[in-house]
Amino acid sequence: RKEVEQDPGPFNVPEGATVAFNCTYSNSASQSFFWYRQDCRKEPKLLMSVYSSGNEDGRFTAQLNRASQYISLLIRDSKLSDSATYLCVVNQNAGGTSYGKLTFGQGTILTVHP
Amino acid sequence: DTEVTQTPKHLVMGMTNKKSLKCEQHMGHRAMYWYKQKAKKPPELMFVYSYEKLSINESVPSRFSPECPNSSLLNLHLHALQPEDSALYLCASSQMTGGEIFSDTQYFGPGTRLTVL
After folding, report:
1. Is the pLDDT reported for residue B2 higher than 80?
2. Which residues on A lie below 8 Å from B102 (Cβ)?
3. Which helix (DSSP H) or strand (DSSP E) does residue B90 occupy?
4. In sequence order, which residues have a C-beta less than 8 Å from that of residue B62 and are 6 or more positions away?
5. What is the pLDDT of residue A96?
6. CA-based nearest residue to B108, from A46, A106, A87
7. According to the model, what pLDDT value does residue A43 have?
8. Which of A83, A98, B77, B112 would suit a FRET pair with A41, their CA atoms being 20 to 30 Å apart?
9. Using CB atoms, which residue from B100, B105, B108 is nearest to A43?
10. What is the model's pLDDT at position A7?
11. Coil/strand/helix, residue B98
12. A-chain residues within 8 Å CB-CB of B30?
């Protein structure tokens, strides 16, 4: 089983649609959770950190369920500019060490069309 | 300003060349990272420096040699690379406020797109 699993998509949605991405992680000791977006041939850019209480930033809502080891990202009112690859990123605790390690999911491709 | 800069943007080199990639941040971050990213794959960690000391080497071949001259700069020296080393090389940095590597958000530079002929 992969340490961080995402549905690779692709997701093709019309402008204005609501789209949800899911991610599961295998290490229950994981400490920090993030969503990054990556445009074609560009670097990953932080979209949001994810907290247990859930957090919202404009059209974007992220949720974390530690019991189910599940992270989600909801995008409302999709824009053409939301087209990108969305990476689920987890800080996995490297057992026995004083630090964790970022593990990336494979990414979910989103295309928003007119 | 959450900016990490990398030079060059693009690099083409032969298998016998020696070249260096450079990364710079002025955010006072104490951890810096090198990642390699192949097409349609997520970034893979190569090296981590914390407080200018090499903390993690993910079993990277010796033809890749990292260097951290000071807290703002990170270099990756390349020698005798193979065509399969062609990839996007990303530098990232994080603050380490908790004193632990990976405890904070990482900010990525734009990357160097490397082609090895």
Report:
1. no
2. 32, 91, 99-102
3. strand B87-94
4. none
5. 47
6. A46
7. 94
8. B77
9. B108
10. 87
11. coil
12. none
Among A100-104, B2-6, B26-30, which is the least confidently predicted range?
A: A100-104
**Residues in chain A within 8 Å Cβ distance of B56:** 101
What phi, psi does A34 have (nearest 5°)?
A: -145, 155
Given its phi and psi angles, is residue B83 left (phi above 0), alpha (psi -120 to 50 degrees) or beta? alpha
B17-66 pLDDT, tens per residue?
Answer: 999 999 999 999 988 999 999 999 999 999 999 889 998 888 999 999 99
Alpha carbon B88 to chain centroid distance?
Answer: 10
CB contact under 8 A, A43 and B100: no
Closest approach of chain B CAs to the CA of A3, in angstroms? 13
Residue A82: DSSP 8-state: G
Six-digit token string for A54: 């859930």
What are the pLDDT digits (tens) for A21-74? 999 999 888 878 999 999 998 999 999 989 777 899 999 999 999 999 999 999
- A106 touches B: beta carbon within 8 Å: yes
CB contact under 8 A, A102 and B42: no
Number of other CB atoms surrounding residue B2 within 10 Å: 12
User: Measuring CA to CA, how many Å separate B4 from each of A10, A80, B1, B42, B94?
Assistant: 30, 27, 9, 19, 10
On the question of pLDDT at A104 being above 90, the answer is yes
